[in-house]
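Lecture notes, continued. The same structure-token format from the folding unit now serves as the input rather than the output. Read the line below as a description of shape only.
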């Protein structure tokens, strides 16, 4: 039996903070069912992480992401919080450094845009409607960095997901995790 190894990097949207499982488990299951291989995705995401947190963790514990063939990357929602508001120039710089580390490790990178917030929902503080504009700007930076690295065709766009995909307007439900897994599986199986 052929095994494929991957790692899912990110924040609470990756871990599945409000659902019974996260992206690593959902993506492994979906690809196990739809291919003739067994897929082992590890979750190396932390709730509350920003791009800076992830970058520093990658430097402190490189074993968390090295040695894998596939890597998903979903980070940026916490950077958009009204209490943090990471400067877009800093966000792009740090995001680019994350991609550079993954490229050096020869990982096949499948990054994602920061998903929309469901503004009509009762968003938990510190998320507000101003976060939507910050996310839009961060997504432009993500696109630029993916183009710079030549991985724009691997970019996953979890935009326009319906209300059933969210628990609280920010975090995903199980059906949201399934939708995310489908988006990634489509890109991964087309490589």
């Amino acid at each position: 039996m052929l095994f494929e190894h991957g790692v899912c990097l990110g924040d609470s949207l990756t871990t599945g903070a409000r659902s019974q499982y996260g992206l690593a488990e959902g993506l492994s299951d979906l690809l196990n069912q739809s291919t003739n291989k067994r897929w082992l995705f590890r979750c190396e995401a932390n709730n509350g992480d920003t791009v800076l947190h992830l970058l520093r963790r990658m430097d402190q514990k490189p074993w968390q992401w090295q040695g894998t063939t596939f890597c998903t990357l979903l980070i940026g929602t916490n950077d958009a919080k009204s209490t943090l508001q990471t400067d877009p120039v800093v966000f792009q710089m740090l995001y680019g450094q994350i991609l550079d580390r993954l490229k050096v490790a020869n990982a096949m990178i499948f990054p994602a845009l920061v998903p929309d917030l469901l503004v009509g929902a009762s968003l938990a503080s510190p998320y507000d409607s101003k976060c939507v504009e910050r996310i839009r700007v961060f997504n432009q930076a993500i696109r630029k960095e993916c183009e710079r690295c030549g991985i724009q065709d691997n970019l996953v766009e979890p935009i326009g997901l319906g209300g059933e995909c969210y628990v609280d307007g920010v975090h995903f439900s199980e059906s949201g995790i399934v939708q995310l897994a489908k988006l990634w599986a489509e890109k991964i199986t087309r490589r």
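Point for the exam: The beta strands are 3-10, 38-45, 70-74, 108-111.
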